UniProtKB/TrEMBL annotation:
Stretches assigned to the YCII-related domain: 20-101
Protein name in the entry: YCII-related domain-containing protein
Chain segments annotated as coiled-coil in the UniProt record: none
Cited Pfam families: YCII (PF03795)
InterPro entries, A to Z: Dimeric_a/b-barrel, Sec-metab_biosynth-assoc, YCII
Length: 116
């Protein structure tokens, strides 16, 4: 009889991380973006980040020629706990450099109606 340990239960979490609206936020975002993307790529390749990206204004779709205004980030994580996701978000360069507005970040359990 096998006594192999079962793997920990993983849950999905939705993250909404809007940028601050103060002047200079976009410049900060762009200056640290390569480091943010590097970390997110590692998280995605490991399966921790299922999907992630920036959100923008509706004009980016209505007028594809218009520049995309970066307003924040959103993610779907697959993790053992909300605390694990919170720790990741709070260590991200966008958080530590003051791009994301920590008062407005939302992290909630997420249940998909369709497979990711």
């Amino acid at each position: 009889m096998s006594t192999a340990a079962s793997s920990p239960t993983k849950h999905r979490f939705f993250v909404y991380a809007p940028d601050k609206t103060e002047e200079g936020t976009l410049a900060r975002r762009l200056s640290v973006r390569p480091k943010h993307i590097e970390g997110a790529k590692v998280g995605h390749e490991s399966g921790f980040i299922r999907i992630g990206g920036m959100f923008t204004t509706p004009e980016a779709v209505i007028n594809p020629e218009a520049p995309k205004q970066m307003l924040g980030s959103t993610f779907i994580f697959e993790a053992e706990s909300l605390e694990q996701v919170k720790k990741y978000i709070e260590s991200d360069i966008y958080y530590t450099s003051g791009v994301w507005d920590p008062e407005k970040i939302v992290i909630l359990p997420f249940f998909s109606a369709f497979p990711l």
